[in-house]
């Protein structure tokens, strides 16, 4: 009971930090960076941090902890599997759009793509995420997938999920840091810590806090969904839920 | 048995990746950045990445996984506690020296300290690390610390230990990314990915891989040291080892 209360406190913190990240990145790019467009200009670039933080960090984190919510444990697992897969697909699509935004701006300005450490870490995270989603879909949702494969796949899926979150966190921090150095120069330098610098730094701190809370929820054994009961099989249209 | 073999493979990978990180950061700063000094010049700055990667990442990671080595399980825990505390103290001292290096260079050049997101994440990691070491020493090594306190402290200590590693990884990636943008401009830009850029990016990738392997070792329940047997108490001069 005490563990459940602690879980919901952590879960509320996770939801609140995620919303704060989204609000912060939207305010930064709409109010301080001039807003949004999809025309190869700097305004198209502004979609990059918004889509990455909202999709690859927040939606990803929300999707990762779905199975940990105790309210869902007494129910058939399949709808929660579908929700998990849908949230992750939404996150993946937003990440790919976020990539398209930055590639389009770079190409319009003849700037090379994928040279910085930030981009190496970010693209690795997205490639691993796409593989993770594909293998997860085939392994856990397709009816033809054997139970033994699911058993072997599950720990790898969970571990890789956490690892991708570590990669995306590192990519976000390096990206925000780099962006603030790029844009805050001249009269108002980053080193004088103007309001935009403070906002960007706060966004970074919120992302780190969000990542830590998600990883805390994922790593607590008491908060893991208990294995499904055999009786549940009857309610699952795609495949049994005993993996 | 299979689990032990897998552990030692992971442990060897951890040791090798750590050494590769140290070699990479030393080569980068000695051969590409002009070497080392302690005189307020740019050469003093070069100690910063070397000390942070060697101390705050590699030595910290090595210290974190000490208890997981199965060879040590049949023995009295105290020497391994002292080794854990000593490695972590070494890591903390190197991190503080690494901070001193960058503060001295900034002060000599009248550059403000602690304004960037990189520095915010890095200083938070070191403050948490210092607190973690102090509380860990008082809670787990001092004879006056009650057993109940140790039991409560242990999960917090383990969780905070992993969280600090996530913070230091993010700080390192943003720091390397920022440094490469600072130094690779003019004729040889970062975007043309010259050998120094490749080396710096590779260092970042090695740090991420090292962090993931350390977190993998820490998170595997099968690799956790079993609770000490009551008979072991007689061998521990400072306090019983049942926390």
Describe this structure in words.
The structure is a homodimer of 243-residue chains. With 243 residues, chain A is mostly helical. Chain A has a single domain, classed as Four Helix Bundle (Hemerythrin (Met), subunit A) (Up-down Bundle). Chain A is 70% helix and 0% strand. In chain A, helix 3 (47-64) runs antiparallel to helix 4, helix 3 (47-64) packs antiparallel against helix 6 and helix 4 (78-108) packs antiparallel against helix 5 (117-141). The longest helix of chain A is centred in the C-terminal third of the chain and has 37 residues, at 147-183. Chain A is globular. Chain A starts with a helix and ends in a 24-residue tail after the last helix. The model of chain A is unreliable at 230-243 (pLDDT under 50).
List keywords for this structure.
disordered C terminus, globular, CYB561/CYBRD1-like (chains A, B), Four Helix Bundle (Hemerythrin (Met), subunit A)
- What count of domains describes the coordinates of chain A? 1
**Count of β-strands of chain A:** 0
- Overall spatial form of chain A: globular
CATH class of chain A: Mainly Alpha
List the chains of the largest interface with their residue counts.
A-B, 40 and 40 residues
The whole-number mean of residue pLDDT values of chain A reads 92
Number of helices of chain A: 7
Strand content of chain A: under 5%
Order of helices and strands of chain A: HHHHHHH
Low-pLDDT runs of chain A:
230-243
Radius of gyration of chain A: 20 Å
Could you say which structural class the secondary elements and strand pairing of chain A correspond to? Answer: mainly alpha
Q: Quaternary status of these chains?
A: homodimer
- What's the end-to-end separation of chain A, in Å? 26 Å
- Helical content of chain A stands at over 70%
Q: So, CATH architecture of chain A? A: Up-down Bundle
How can the largest sheet of chain A be summarized? none
Q: Looking at CATH, which topology of chain A would you report?
A: Four Helix Bundle (Hemerythrin (Met), subunit A)
Main location (chains A, B): membrane
GO molecular function (chains A, B): metal ion binding; transmembrane ascorbate ferrireductase activity
InterPro entries (chains A, B): CYB561/CYBRD1-like, Cyt_b561/ferric_Rdtase_TM
Protein name (chains A, B): Lysosomal membrane ascorbate-dependent ferrireductase CYB561A3
């Amino acid at each position: 009971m005490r563990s459940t209360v602690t879980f919901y406190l952590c879960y509320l913190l996770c939801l609140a930090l995620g919303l704060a990240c989204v609000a912060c990145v939207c305010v930064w790019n709409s109010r301080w960076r001039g807003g949004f467009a999809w025309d190869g200009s700097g305004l198209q670039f502004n979609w990059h941090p918004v889509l990455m933080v909202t999709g690859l960090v927040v939606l990803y984190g929300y999707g990762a902890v779905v199975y940990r919510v105790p309210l869902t444990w007494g129910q058939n697992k399949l709808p929660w599997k579908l929700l998990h897969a849908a949230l992750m697909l939404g996150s993946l699509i937003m990440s790919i759009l976020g990539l398209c935004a930055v590639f389009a701006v770079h190409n319009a300005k003849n700037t090379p793509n994928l040279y910085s450490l930030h981009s190496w870490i970010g693209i690795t995270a997205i490639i691993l995420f796409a593989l993770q989603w594909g293998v997860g879909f085939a392994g856990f949702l397709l009816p033809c997938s054997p139970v033994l494969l699911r058993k072997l796949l599950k720990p790898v899926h969970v571990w890789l999920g956490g690892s991708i979150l570590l990669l995306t966190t590192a990519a976000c921090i390096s990206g925000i840091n780099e962006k603030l150095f790029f844009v805050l120069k001249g009269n108002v330098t980053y080193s004088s810590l103007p309001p935009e610098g403070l906002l960007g730094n706060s966004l970074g701190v919120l992302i780190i806090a969000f990542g830590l809370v998600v990883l805390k929820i994922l790593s607590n054994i008491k908060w893991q969904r208990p294995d499904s009961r055999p009786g549940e099989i009857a309610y699952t249209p795609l495949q049994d839920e005993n993996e």
